Structures are given as structure tokens and as C-alpha cells.
Amino acid sequence: MSGTDDLKRLQMAGLPPSVVLVNGSDLTPEPVRWLWPDWLALGKLHILAGAPGQGKTTIALAIAATITIGGRWPCGARCEPGNVLIWSGEDDPADTLLPRLLAAGADRSRCYFVQGTQVDGDVIPFDPASHMTALEDQARSIGGVRLLIVDPVVSAVQGDSHKNTEVRRALQPLVDLGSRLDAAVLGISHFSKGGAGSDPASRVVGSIAFTAVARVVLVAAKVKDEDDDSQDRRILARGKSNIGPDDGGFEYTIEQAEPLPGIHASYVNWGKGVAGTARDLLREPDAQTEETGEQAPGARQAAADFLLQVLATGVTPTKTVEAEAKAAGVKWASVRRAADDLKVTKRRGDGGVWYWRLPMLLTQVAQDAQLSNSEQVEQVGEQVADPTPSQPDDIEVI
User: Fold this and answer.
1) I need a labelling partner for 93 at 20 to 30 A (CA). Which of 81, 316, 364, 396 fits?
2) Would the pTM count as exceeding 0.85?
3) Domain boundaries, the chain
């Protein structure tokens, strides 16, 4: 049952809600428990993102296959065998998902697919807002579930996927489910258009809440081979991690196999490990580098999209903006430059606390549309010539 349901139950019973506190001395520190060391953590939400055609679903199924057979991860570590749940709104289990799992060597008896919810004898589409408890009951009856794949993760959001509050609210039941089942949750998403050269974690389509709520963001992309410009190579990298290392990756290729006669499917062939940040590893050839002294246009644009979302509700403490930027994997230097581009007003309030707000025109646009398209941002930005009649006496030095 969700926190909202619990609150409604208390209200109907005429009982006032009370806050439950726990003293730090009553807690025992616990280490993060990893399913895939430093890549997938038990009880946590993860995002796997990338441009179309990079094999994101195939990668997720390769991970699932490894779990079902207790195989070895690309790093060489052995995985304990377990069951996997797959909730897909894009691919058919019989002709796409299961063949790929078999091509990856999966134990099909440990793979379970969410196909709907049975209500009064009828099977209706699975609704995460209403049927999460039923899914948990099924998972517990199976036992040993170690991974839940949600493809695409935006299917868990019933409201506007570009609004922070709605995304956070929608993802919380998924986060809670993973925690209660002690399973890793892996949501698949796409990159937004543009953003070449920016931090890959900041390019996840939709609200910044997707990357902020996830503890680890994995990114997949095709890049030019350093030794042969005519060849491309694919890399899976860590774009963000709040609980472990946030750099490094593995090369991979997408191969074809025939796991059963007449059944053809793709699978992942893992390559060598690579060092470096996701931004360095996945930088596109035409992206500007830090050595030039200039910022890649995509990084500033991603930061502008971030600010339009965070400041859409009005005046916001600077510390809140910083915290949200850190959680979303957006560099603070990019945020500051984007703030200048958008003519963000910075004022000091009571107690010396600094606050940011968008110009009135941009505030209205952000609230109405939750902009993420670069062309729209540029068009609106051109209209904001002088958003404030006078500058405040106290201007934050950034």
C-alpha cells in the first residue's frame, strides 16, 4: 500500500497522521549490496538510457540472462542465480523478448513477463498506479526475484513525464517495490534530441526526476573507434552513481544468433573494460572538448532544460537548485552559464539565503509546457531582452 493510501485510510478512520522518527543510535550501518558490483544494487532504481538503435533492451535482457543462470558479469564477477520480472510496453514477449533471452543463454524458467492484470475474469492493461500491490504479491509468490525491468520507464508515469513532482510521485511505488522485494529495478529510457558533448546522464528524456530518483544511471552509445575512424564501437558506461563509482564502462557489440531452429534474435557480446567518465567515453566526434576552453552547446542546453523544470514553480532557494543539479548529474558550471542565458534573477532574502527565479515570461512558458525542446528554449530566450525593470541591489556572484 502506498503512503497516499495509508493517509486516506487514517483520515477515513478519523485518526490524525503522526510522524515516525528513528534515532541514529538505533540504526545499524549497512553496506550497499550489489547484484552486479558497482553497477546494479539490490533494492535500488537504475536507469539505462541511450539513443535509438544502441541495443538498450538487448543489454537489459543480457543482464537478465546472466542473473537467471548465475553467470559472470562483464567484469568477471560471478552472479548468484535468481528470477527476473519484465514489464515491457514496446516488445512482444513471444517473438522478441524471449528469443533475445534465449540468444543470451537465459534460463527461460526464471523469466516472467507482465502481460496485464486480471480483474473479474478479464485481463486489462497493467496500471502501475493501481496494480503495483498485485504485482508485488505475484513476485513474492514466485520468490527469488532479483531484477525488475521496466521498458520504457516512462510507462510507469501516468501524468506528465516532464514534470518533476508527477514523475517523482509516479516512480516512488516502483522504488518502494524494489526495496521491499530486495530486487534491482532497471528502467529503460531514451536520450533527448541534441545535447552532443554534454553529460550523458543529463540527456535522459523527460523530467530530471528520472535521473535524480535513480541511484545509478547507465548510458549506452555508439562512438568512433580511436584506432580506426571508419569503424564504430559501442560502449556501456556509468553516467551517474550516488552509491558507487560513477565512471568506467565496457565495450560491446550486438550479434545475431539462432537459439532455436527458425528463431533469430540479437544478443550482446561484451568486450574489454574502458576507463574514463561517460562524457569522455561517449563524446561525439563533433562535440567541443574541454581543452578548447569552450563549453559544448548541448551541455548548456541541457542545463537550460534543467532550470526550466526546477524553477517552473517559482522562487527557489539556490541551495535547492544546487542539490537538484547534483542529483540529476548536471554540472554546476553549466547551470550557472544557462542561468545567465535565461536571465535568471538572483536575490538574497532573509537570513542571507539566496533565491533564483525565472523571468515572468519564461516562468509562464515553463509552467504551461515544461519545455525540453532546444528550439523552443532558444525562441523564448530571444524574447527575454530585459526581464526585470531594475536589477536588485544584492546580486549573487557566480
Assistant:
1) 81
2) no
3) 29-281, 290-383
